[in-house]
């Protein structure tokens, strides 16, 4: 990507020492490192988002292909076995009705009703 030779790197270091100064050079290099790290993190995040979108599109294409293959196989099977017509699935039975809840005491501070042996 960036091909920097040893002489070019030496020139950059000399210019940095002259322009920034030897006293502030470590702080400047630290800030440059932070900026480069943030840029790499943003690039990684962007790339992962693009990869996720590509995976979603590929998955949709595969689902369409599977659906088409499934329909083709079902047509071929129905043509080869006319007696094996698709059997409709029965509708699920409705859930049993629930019993109503007991009525709440009239006042919040009222004691609860006593429980008898038969209710336990």
Number of helices: 2
- Main sheet attributes: strand count, strand direction, barrel closure: none
Q: Which word captures the global form?
A: flat
| Poorly predicted parts | none
Beta-strand proportion:
under 5%
Termini separation comes to 78 Å
SSE class: mainly alpha
- Gyration radius, to the nearest Å? 37 Å
Total DSSP E strands: 0
Mean pLDDT over all positions: 82
| Helical content class | 55-70%
Please trace the helix and strand order, writing H or E for each element: HH
Describe this structure in words.
- By secondary structure, this protein is mainly alpha-helical.
- The chain has a domain at 27-84.
- It has two helices and no strands.
Task: Note the main attributes of this structure.
120 residues; mainly alpha; 2 helices; 59% helix; flat
């Amino acid at each position: 990507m960036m091909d920097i030779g040893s002489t070019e790197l030496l020139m950059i270091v000399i210019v940095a020492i002259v322009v920034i100064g030897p006293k502030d050079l470590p702080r400047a290099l630290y800030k440059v490192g932070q900026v480069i790290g943030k840029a790499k993190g943003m690039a990684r995040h962007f790339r992962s988002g693009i990869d996720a979108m590509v995976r979603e599109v590929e998955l949709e294409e595969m689902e369409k292909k599977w659906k088409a293959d499934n329909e083709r196989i079902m047509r071929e099977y129905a043509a080869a076995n006319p007696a094996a017509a698709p059997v409709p699935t029965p509708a699920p039975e409705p859930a049993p009705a629930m019993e109503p809840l007991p009525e709440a005491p009239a006042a919040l501070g009222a004691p609860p009703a006593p429980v008898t042996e038969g209710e336990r």
